[in-house]
């Protein structure tokens, strides 16, 4: 049997199949075979196996004896995986995914803000306030859709979760960064942030800086309520 010419890389197969699954082209229960994937991608068995293993780790595929490779239902996916978030933002359920991840932020970030007010180091308190000030300045200039704003926004939320002192909250920093990044690069982040969001950012950071846990939680919740309204109204 002739050896296939390897023209598709492992990463290309992962992304192509991943997008087809997340986008709904390959429905749950769809069966695949290594031989079929080899032929489809003109790739070696080794490369295809590696790609399948990655997608199995993402929860998108499962391999069963005497059945083959099967697409798994959405509820079994690793929904917080950065790849899956990115692919979902290009799929037909983009709005639902953004709303779901925003709801997760609403559940977690206000509590993280309260804990940060109680546990953050002095340097973290100062840095968080600095990032909030940068966001306020950029947003006030109508640069809420700029790369600089995105960088500051990701840094602010990552630091907020880290300063909470809860390592499980910190695990959410990359999914949150991915949704912020995804909204920005797809033109879904307004240049002029919604009225009240910048003020709530600053109020949250100031309350954390001052050690006022209840105020930090309330301001973070106010900020995310505004974000939720913006997302659901999009």
Automatic annotation (TrEMBL):
InterPro entries: GntR_C, TF_FadR/GntR_C, Tscrpt_reg_HTH_GntR, WH-like_DNA-bd_sf, WH_DNA-bd_sf. It comes from the Bacteria. Residues 7-74 form the HTH gntR-type domain. Keywords: DNA-binding, Transcription, Transcription regulation. GO terms for molecular function: DNA binding; DNA-binding transcription factor activity. SMART domains: FCD, HTH_GNTR. This is Transcriptional regulator. It comes from Microbacterium oleivorans. The lineage of its organism: Bacteria, Bacillati, Actinomycetota, Actinomycetes, Micrococcales.
């Amino acid at each position: 049997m002739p050896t296939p010419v390897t023209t598709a890389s492992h990463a290309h197969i992962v992304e192509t199949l991943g997008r087809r699954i997340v986008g709904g082209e390959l429905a749950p229960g769809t069966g695949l075979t290594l031989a079929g994937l080899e032929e489809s991608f003109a790739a070696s068995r080794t490369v295809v196996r590696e790609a399948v293993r990655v997608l199995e780790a993402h929860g998108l595929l499962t391999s069963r004896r005497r059945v083959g490779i099967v697409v798994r239902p959405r509820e079994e996916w690793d929904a917080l995986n950065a790849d899956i978030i990115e692919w979902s933002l290009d799929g037909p359920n983009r709005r639902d995914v953004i709303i779901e991840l925003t709801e997760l932020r609403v559940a977690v970030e206000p509590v993280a803000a309260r804990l940060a007010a109680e546990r953050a180091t002095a340097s973290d308190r100062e840095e968080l306030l600095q990032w909030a000030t940068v966001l306020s300045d950029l947003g006030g200039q109508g640069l809420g859709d700029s790369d600089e704003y995105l960088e500051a926004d990701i840094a602010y939320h990552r630091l907020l979760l880290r300063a909470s002192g809860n390592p499980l909250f910190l695990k959410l920093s990359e999914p949150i960064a991915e949704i912020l990044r995804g909204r920005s690069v797809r033109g879904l982040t307004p240049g002029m942030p919604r009225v009240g969001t910048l003020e709530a950012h600053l109020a949250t950071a100031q309350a954390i800086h001052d050690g006022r846990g209840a105020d930090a939680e309330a301001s973070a919740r106010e900020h995310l309520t505004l974000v939720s309204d913006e997302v659901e109204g999009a």
